[in-house]
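Thread: Modeling a multi-component assembly for a lab meeting

Hi all, long-time lurker, first post. My supervisor asked me to bring a structural picture of a complex we are working on to next week's group meeting, and I have zero experience with this. I have the sequence lines for every component (863 residues in total). Could someone generate the structure of the whole assembly? Inputs are pasted exactly as I received them:
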Amino acid sequence: MICASGSIVPRDRSAGNASIWLPGLLRFGSNFRFSIEQAGASLVHNCSLYRVMIRIVLLIVGLLAVLAPTCLLAQDGRPHSVLVLDQSNLRGPFYYQLSSGLREVLDTEGQITVYGENLDLTRFGGAAYEESLKRYLKEKYRDRSIGVIVANGAGTLDHTLRWREELWPGVPVVFAMLEVTQLAKLGRLANVTGVAIKNPLADAIKTARTVVPGLDTIVLVGDSWDRQSLFRHWGEEIPTATSGLMVIDLVGQKMSNILKRVAELPERSAIVYSGVFSDGAGTYYPAATAMRLIAEKANRPIVVGAEPLLAAGAIGGYSLIAKEIGAEAGRLALRILNGEQAGNVPPVTQESKPLFNWKQMQRWNVSESSLPEGSEIRFREPTFLEQYRWESMAVASAILIQAGLIIFLLHERHLRRNAEVESHERMSELAHVNRQATTGELSSSIAHELNQPLGSILTNAETAELILKSDKPDLGEIREILADIKRDDQRAGEVIRRLRGFLKRTPFETRDIDLNEVMGEAFKFLSVQASARNVALYLQTAPGALRIKGDPIQLQQVILNLVVNSMDAMATIPYGRTVIGRTELNGGSSAVISISDSGPGIPADKLAQVFDPFFTTKEKGMGIGLSIARTIILAHKGQIWAENQSGGGAAFHFTLPLVA
Amino acid sequence: MPGCVHVVDDDASFRTAIERRLTLAGYQVATYPSAQQLLDSPPDENELCCILLDVRIPGLSGPELQGRLNALGSTLPIVFLTGHPDTPTTVRTIKAGAEDFLTKPVESEELLGAIERAMARHAAVRGEQHRLEEMRALLAALTARERQVFGLVVRGKLNKQIAHELGTTERTIKAHRHQVMEKMKVQSLAELVTMAERLGLLS
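Re: Modeling a multi-component assembly
Sure thing. I ran the full set together rather than chain by chain. Output:
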C-alpha cells in the first residue's frame, strides 16, 4: 500500500516518464484505490466474508497486475528534497563555495527542494546545545520527507549518523569533506556515501620546502585540532610529516599572541596555516579573515590547504577546492535521488590541488619552474604584453613590416648605388682609354708644347755657358738667362702636369668648376693640333664664370672629342677649315656648350646614331669618342645632341646644370 | 761673315733665347711673333741675311710664309725650326727650297752651322747677282749697233756675214766688234759668249 500511495505523490520526473505510457493506468489505478477503500468499508459493514474475500483477492490480483509498473517506478527514486547540514557558518568563503557548488549541480536537475541547516559546531558545542539542536531539527522536519541528507564536515557527519535513526530513519546520507583516514576509521557505514578528501600535512610541508629553499623550521598556526574540520587529521600527522624540521607550534594560541610571534619568525621557516576561527577573546571569524590578519604581520610565507585562503595572502599549497567538493557531493546526492542505493555508491575521493598566489610568489621570489607539476597560479598580474596583446602585436607587426620595408628599400638603394658606382667606374675606365687614344692623336701638339720650352732652355743654357767663358762675363745677362730657364722649366712642367692629369685614371669626381676655364684649357690643348691640321680654332665664351658641378678632366675630354671629331670631319675639304667653340647661358639654370665646324655635316639619317657606341664614319675610328662624350654628359645630368647647321657644317651641343 | 737673322716664332721665350744666342755669335737679329709681320716689313734682300722660321705659328704658318716669299721672288735662305717634325712637312719645305730643317730643342752648334750655311749661300747668291748686274750695266753701255753686233758675234757669225746682214762694211763691223770687246771688258770671244749666255741673250 505504501508502495502504491508513494507512487501517487506528484513528482516531476517520474510523472514525466510515466506520462508517456501510464496516464490511463494511473487513472485506472486511482479508481482501484477507491475500490479498496470501499472494500474495507464493505468488509466492516456487510460481514459477508466470502464475498469480501473474493473481492479482496480479485482486487489484490488486479492491483498487482495493474500497479506492478508503478511500484517499480516508486523504487526508482526518492522524495526530491535534500537537507544540507553544514558544520560551519555559510558566510565564510569556504562553506559558501561548497554550498554554491552543491546548489549548482542540484539546480541542473530542476525542482529539488533544498533545506539547509548550519550546526555551527566550530563556535558551539556541548551536550545541551546538541540536544536542543536535535530537538529543533526533529520538530522542524517532522512533516517533511527528505530524499537525502548532505552532511558537510566530519562533525556534521558524526551528528547526522547519531541522529538519523530518530530523526530521518532510512534516509541516505552523503557526506562531504571527510578526510580519508577518518573515513577509514569510521569503518563501513550503512546507507552512506560521500566525498572524501585527501589533504595530508605532508603536502603542506612539501609546499613549504618548495617555497623556502633550505627550509628548517615549520610554524604551525591554527585553532586546536579538535575544533578543525578540514585539517583535524594534521594534528596526528605532525610527527611523521615534520621529521627533520624544527616545529614552532602556535596551534590553539590566542590571536594576539599569534600575530606577535609570526612577525619575528626565523629565516628559512614557513608558516602552515590550518585555520583560526576566533581570537580566543570572544570574536569569531571565518578562517580567511583571520588569515588576512596574520598575513599582514607575518615575516615568512604562509602555506595553506584551502582555496579561499589563497586570496587572503597565502603563498599557496595543496588546496581543497570547496566548489568542486560541493559539486561532487551534489552529483552523488542526485544519483541517490534518482534511485541508486547509497550503500552501492562508493565514496569519491577529492584530492587537494597545488594552487599558488602569483603576487606572493613575487614577494618571496619563488620561480614558476620550481613549483610542483600541475600547479595552478592565481592572481597573476598580466604583463604589459598580456594585457595589451593585440595592440602590442599590431604595433610590433607594424614596426616589423616597416623595418622590413626599410631594410628592403635600403637594400635596393645599396644595389642601385653599387650599380651606379660600377657604371661610373666602367665609364671612367673607358674614358681613360679614350683619353689615351686622344692623347696619341694629339701627340704632335704635346711634343710641340714640350719642345718649345725645352728648346729655349737648351739655347739659353748654351748662351750662358759662352758668356761665362768670356773674359768679362755679363752677370746681369746671366741672371736674366737663368730666370728665363726657370720660367721655361716651369712651363714644361706645367705641360707634363696637365698631360698627366689628363691621362690619369681617376674615379669620377665632381667639384665646383668654371666651364669657361675648362673650355679654355681644352682649346689651348687643341690649338697646336688645329694649326697643324690647318684648322682655324675660335673660342667665344660667355662673360663671367659658368659655375657647374663636374669632373673637369672628363668634361675637357668631351670638348676634345667633339673638336677632334670636327677636325677629322673636315680633313677632306681643301680650305676654310674652322671650328668654333661657344659657351652660353641657357636660361638661368644651365649652360650650353656648342662646337660647330665648317665640314660636310652629318647625313640626316645618321644624326640619331652618332652617339651610339661603335658607330663611326671614319676609316680608322673606333666609334667610342662621341659615345663616351654622351656617357660623361649624362653622368653630369646634362644632355647632348647633334645637328646640321643651316649654313653647312655640323654642330654639337651639350647642356650642363649650373650650380644654384 | 756676320749678317742679319730674321727669327719668326710665336713663342716669346724662344725668340728671346735665340736672339741672345745669335747676338752672342755676332749676328744681327730681328724677331717677328708672326709670319704676317715679316711679310709686312720684308728684309732687305741685298743685306746678308737669312730667316729662322718656326713651322707651327698661329695664322700664317711657316711653310705658307715660305710659299709667299718664293712667290715674291725672294732669295732669302730659310732655316726651318720645329717642335715636332713630320716627314710630309719636311719634304715639302725642302722641295720648296728650304736651307735646312731643324728640330727643337736644337744645339747651338747645329743651329749656328745651319745659319752659317744659309748666310754663305745668301752671300753666294748675292755675289752672283752682283756680277750679273755688273754685266747688265756693261751691256747697257753698248750702243744699239754695238748690241746688234754683240748678239751676232756670240752666235758665231763671221764679220763678213755680219756686215752683209747689217748692210755695212766688214771693216765697220770689225771696229764695232773691237768696241764691244772693250766695253764688255773681255779678252776673248769665249769670254764674251759665256757672258752672253749668263745674261740670257742666247736663249
